[in-house]
Amino acid sequence: MTLKLPCRIGEDDMNLIEGVMIKKLPVIPDQRGYLMEMLRSDWPEFERFGQAI
């Protein structure tokens, strides 16, 4: 099975938006495709629940 992943961000692109953190996300594949969690409540970056659109 070939897994297509999002394009990688080069080191030169790391400072485009002040305050934005780049984090390598684990890929969770299965027969339907793959999942990458953007934010978890048990990560230190999590402050409170909000809305993502």
| Lateral strand order in the biggest sheet | 1-2
Overall pLDDT: 75
- Poorly predicted runs are none
Radius of gyration: 14 Å
Order of helices and strands: EE
Strand content: 5-15%
DSSP strand count: 2
Spatial separation of the terminal alpha carbons: 30 Å
Largest sheet: 2 strands, antiparallel
Helix content range: under 10%
Count of discrete alpha- or pi-helical segments spanning 4 or more residues: 0
Q: Could you say which structural class the secondary elements and strand pairing correspond to?
A: little secondary structure
Question: Outline, from the CA principal axes?
Answer: extended
Please name the defining characteristics of this protein.
53 residues; little secondary structure; two-stranded antiparallel sheet; 0% helix; extended
Q: What does this molecule look like?
A:
There is one protein chain. By secondary structure, the chain is mostly loops. The protein has a domain at 17-47. 0% of the residues lie in helices and 11% in strands. The chain has strands spanning 28-30, 33-35. Strands 1-2 form a two-stranded antiparallel sheet. Strand 1 (28-30) and strand 2 (33-35) form a beta hairpin. The radius of gyration is 14 Å and the shape is extended.
Secondary structure elements and their pairing?
Elements: E1 28-30, E2 33-35
Antiparallel strand pairs: 1-2
Give a nutshell description of this structure.
Helix content is 0%, strand content 11%.
